[in-house]
Amino acid sequence: MDKLHFDQHISRHFNEELELIKSQMLTMGGKVETQLDDAVAALLDADSGLARDVVFREEEIDALEVQIDEDCTTLIARRQPAASDLRMVMAVSKTIRDLERIGDESKKIAKMAIILSEEGDAPRGYIEVRHIASGVRKMLHDSLDAFTRYDSDAALKTLKADDQIDLEYKSALRELITYMMEDPRSISRVMNVLWALRSLERVGDHAKNICEHTVYLVKGKDIRHGNTEALDS
Question: Could you tell me which residue ranges the PhoU domain spans (predicted)?
Answer without folding.
Answer: 27-112, 130-213
